[in-house]
Design a protein that fits this description.
This protein is mostly beta strands. 0% of the residues lie in helices and 59% in strands. It has strands at 3-7, 10-13, 18-25, 29-39, 46-52, 57-59, 67-72, 77-82, 91-101, 108-113, 117-122. The strands form 2 sheets. Strands 2, 4, 5, 6, 9, 10 and 11 form a 7-stranded mixed β-sheet that branches. A hairpin with a 6-residue loop joins strand 9 (91-101) and strand 10 (108-113).
Length: 123
């Protein structure tokens, strides 16, 4: 069983910064990619930023130039540095880990989600 836990959300004024952290823990798993998603009230969950184990990154257009995703593969940890925050960035931010569980035969797909952390940006 892989657990994903986020931290670092909170209340910040527009123009401010926050750093989210996410760690995946458990046994007998390999992570191929991790990502940050967000869901605002009344809206669908969207991918904000993703990073592969090889270091490739992608971002939704609305955060390019403001957010930066990074990872420490040895610690199964991913970060999201959020700068120049806007009220429209207000949402619950979820971390996702994708990869492989090899504790069972045959191995199973890993697709684990955290419980979410709330980011509120005031105007």
């Amino acid at each position: 069983q892989v657990q994903v836990v986020e931290s670092g959300g909170g209340l910040v004024q527009a123009g401010g910064s926050l750093r989210l952290s996410c760690v995946a823990s458990g046994s007998r798993f390999i992570i191929n990619a991790m990502g940050w998603y967000r869901q605002a009230p009344g809206k669908q969950r969207e991918l904000v930023a993703g990073i592969t184990s090889g270091g490739s990154t992608n971002y939704v257009d609305s955060v390019k130039g403001r957010f930066a995703i990074s990872a420490d593969n040895a610690k199964n940890t991913v970060y999201l540095q959020m700068n120049s925050l806007k009220p429209e960035d207000t949402a619950v931010y979820y971390c996702n880990a994708k990869g492989l569980n090899y504790g069972r035969i045959p191995p199973t797909v890993l697709d684990a989600w955290g419980q979410g952390t709330l980011v509120t940006v005031s105007s």
